[in-house]
Amino acid sequence: MSKFKKKKSGDMPAVNTASLPDIVFMLLFFFMVATVMRQNTLKIENNLPFADQVEKLDKKDLVMYIYAGKPSQNYKQFGTEARIQLNDDFASVKDIASFIAQERASKREELIPFLTTALKVDSDANMGLIGDIKQELRKVNALKLNYTTKKGSVFGRD
Amino acid sequence: MAKRAAPEVNAGSMADIAFLLLIFFLVTTTIEVDSGINRKLPPMEESEEDVIIKQKNIFTVLLNGKDQLLVEDEIMELKDLRAAAIEFLDNGGDGSCDYCKGKRNPSSSDNPDKAIISLKNERETSYKTYIAVQNELVAAYNVLRDARAQSLYGKSFADMQANYKDVNWPGNKEKLKEKIDQIKVDYPQKLSEVQ
C-alpha cells in the first residue's frame, strides 16, 4: 500500500568505528603519563628494604644513584656476592670517586653542593659493602646521603 | 512479515567519554617519587681537639653479624629500640631541659643537646636490619620533635615540615622556618656512626 516503505534487509549495520582513534589516543596518553622512566638497566637484584620514617627525594636532577646488590639471574657469572652498579655496569668501590666527579662535572657549578647520593641497595646485601661506599663518598666529600627504601613498616618482614 | 533492522547506535559521544577518562587518569596518576632516609656523612678531616663525652651521654647501639642488637650492653629486640632511645634522649638528667618528660635519671643523659646515639655495625650485618635500626632511631627523634611541636605550636613537626615545602601554603614561611629550627635546636639529631 505505502510507496515509501523502506527496503528491509537482513544485514546488520556496520559498527561505527569513528571513536576507535579516541580510545587508542587515550591509552597512549595514559601510558605516556604513567610510565616511570628508568635511567639504568639493572644487572643486580634490587629489592629495597622497608622503612617508615622516610623523606621524599625530590629534585630528581640533583640525585646520583648508586645501586648495589647481588648479580641477577642473567649475570650469574659475576658471582653471588653483592656488587656495586654505577650507570649501566658493574663497578668496584674504586670507581665511585670517578663516578661522582663525572656526575658533578655534568651539573651546573652552583648546584653541586645540593647533590644527593641515593643508595639503592638490596635488602640482603651486607654492611661491609655499604661501609666501603660510605668511606669512598666521604673521601670525595659527597656527604648528603639517602638510603632509598620502600614505604612500609620495618617489622615482620623476614 | 518484514524484518526490522537494528537501529544504529549513535557513537558521536564516544569521543567525549574517552576524553573524560583520559582527563581523569591524567589528573589522578602520580609518577612515583623515590623516598628514603636522609643522612649526612661526617666530613673526612679529623678534628684535632678530642671532645670528651661522658659515658652516660652516649647511647650505644651495636649490631652484630647475625643481626642481633646490643643496646647499652643489653640484648634488645628491635621493637623495643624506639622506646629505649626516646627514654634516653628525653631523660634530662641535669635539669637544664625544662621540656623533657623523662625520668631525670642521673645516670642517663644530661639533656637532649648532649645526648648522642652511637651506632656500630659489623661488616656482616645485613642492610635490611641496618635500615630498620636507622629507621627506629630516626623515629625516636621524630616522636620527640612531634611532641615538642604539639606542645609549642599545636601541630606536629611533620605537618610543619610539609607546610614549609608546600608552595601553596598560605602562611608565613619565615616564621615557620624559625619554629622548625627551634624544634631542631631543642632535639638535635645527634646520631654518630662508628667506622
How is this structure best described in words?
The complex is a heterodimer of chains A (about 160) and B (about 200). In chain A, about 25% of the residues lie in helices and about 20% in strands. With about 160 residues, chain A is α/β, with parallel strands linked by helices. Chain A has a domain at about 50-150: Nucleotidyltransferase, domain 5. In chain A, strand 6, helix 3 and strand 7 (about 145-150) form a beta-alpha-beta unit. Chain A starts with 19 loop residues before the first helix and ends in a 7-residue tail after the last strand. The mean pLDDT of chain A is about 80. Chain B has about 200 residues and is of the alpha/beta class. Chain B is about 40% helix and about 15% strand. A five-stranded mixed β-sheet of chain B has the order 4-3-2-5-6, covered by helices on one side. In chain B, helix 4 runs antiparallel to helix 5. Chains A and B meet through helix 1, strand 1, strand 2, strand 6 and helix 3 of A and helix 1, strand 1 and helix 3 of B. Strand 2 of chain A pairs antiparallel with strand 1 (about 35-40) of chain B, so a sheet runs across the interface.
Please render the helix and strand layout as text:
The complex is a heterodimer of chains A (158) and B (195).
Chain A: H1 20-34, E1 50-51, E2 55-56, E3 63-69, E4 83-86, E5 89-91, H2 95-105, E6 116-121, H3 127-139, E7 144-151
Chain B: H1 14-28, E1 35-40, E2 58-63, E3 69-71, E4 74-76, H2 78-89, E5 116-121, H3 127-153, H4 157-165, H5 173-186, E6 191-194
Parallel strand pairs in B: 2-5, 5-6
Antiparallel strand pairs in B: 2-3, 3-4
Helix pairs in contact in B: 2-3, 3-5, 4-5
